């Protein structure tokens, strides 16, 4: 007769299976984290559709320039699947006294390369420096939305930014991932971190935060921890009935950004 399995061995085997499955899921999360963070597929456009080009570390970044010839400037960093060219007309109206630069991340729009945090940080500073060269005596404001709030926070920590507007921002991307997957060691697994709270601990400029009350992408706690890390109280505009992606449909969205950047 076949030997009966002892309960202890059954429990041990079950535990090993769970452990192996957990390790496999963690490994998959680590290997595919960039696919989870970056979504450039629906943003692609032909190079002929753009009117601005910037070279950064051998890569050509392309985008659009709105209201050329103004003394002051504004740089916009969009979300992880955002078609930034859709903002050309609204931004032309909201920021009529500023030249606005909408430049796609690597791998987005008509820009070359592959997205990644280290490259994004370098590209963002290269863009700021080019804008400063074009506007030597003007103010440069920065707006970052969602993923772009992490990029904008980095720029504000490394370059003079008098006005910084953050839309649905977070304390850190790894912390957001941990909130969504509390049963995984996301903080240990993620290389794409964008630690905005760390970047902005010493920032002394003016900050506007636009927060969605029904945000299911960036949990409210992550935004609150960013606010708590700022050395100066920011101006906060709440959109209690809006979600992560539709708060910009509210007329107060443009009013808040335009008023802050005047």
Helix/strand class: alpha/beta
Which CATH architecture?
Answer: 3-Layer(aba) Sandwich
Query: Would you identify the CATH H-level superfamily?
Result: Alpha/Beta hydrolase fold, catalytic domain
N→C terminal distance:
86 Å
**So how many helices?**
10
The name CATH uses for the topology is Rossmann fold
Summarize the structure.
The protein is an alpha/beta fold and 262 residues long. It is 40% helix and 18% strand.
Q: Would you mind describing this structure in some detail?
A:
There is one protein chain. This protein has 262 residues and is an alpha/beta fold. It has a single domain (32-261), classed as 3-Layer(aba) Sandwich (Rossmann fold). It contains 10 helices and 8 strands. It has helices at 7-31, 33-37, 88-94, 117-134, 147-158, 173-180, 186-189, 196-199, 220-229, 251-261; strands spanning 52-56, 59-66, 72-77, 98-103, 140-145, 163-167, 206-212, 235-239. The protein has an 8-stranded mixed beta sheet with strand order 1-2-4-3-5-6-7-8, sandwiched between helices. Helix 4 (117-134) packs across helix 5 (147-158). The mean pLDDT is 90.
Keywords:
hydrolase, AB_hydrolase_fold, eight-stranded mixed sheet, AB_hydrolase_1, alpha/beta, Rossmann fold, Alpha/beta hydrolase, 40% helix
């Amino acid at each position: 007769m076949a030997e009966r399995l002892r309960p202890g061995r059954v429990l041990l085997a079950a535990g090993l299976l769970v452990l192996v499955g957990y390790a496999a899921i963690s490994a998959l999360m680590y290997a595919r984290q960039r696919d989870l963070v970056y979504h450039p597929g629906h943003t692609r456009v032909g190079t002929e559709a753009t009117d601005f080009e910037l070279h950064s570390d051998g890569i050509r970044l392309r985008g659009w320039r709105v209201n050329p010839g103004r003394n002051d400037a504004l740089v916009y960093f969009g979300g992880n699947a955002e078609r930034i060219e859709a903002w050309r007309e609204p931004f032309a109206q909201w920021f009529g006294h500023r030249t606005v630069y909408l430049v796609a991340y690597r791998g987005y729009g008509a820009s070359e390369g592959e997205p990644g945090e280290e490259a994004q940080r370098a590209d963002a500073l290269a863009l700021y420096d080019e804008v400063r060269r074009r506007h030597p005596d003007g103010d440069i404001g920065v707006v970052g939305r969602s993923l772009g709030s992490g990029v904008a926070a980095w720029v504000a920590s490394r370059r003079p930014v008098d006005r910084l507007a953050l839309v649905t921002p977070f304390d850190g991307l790894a912390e957001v991932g941990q909130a969504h997957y509390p049963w995984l060691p996301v903080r240990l697994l993620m290389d794409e971190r964008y630690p905005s709270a760390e970047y902005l601990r010493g920032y002394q400029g003016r900050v506007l935060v636009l927060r969605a009350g029904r945000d299911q992408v960036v949990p409210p706690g992550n935004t609150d921890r960013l606010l708590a890390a700022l050395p100066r109280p920011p101006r906060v505009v709440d959109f209690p009935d809006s979600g992560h992606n539709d708060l910009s449909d509210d007329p107060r969205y443009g009013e808040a950004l335009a008023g802050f950047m005047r």
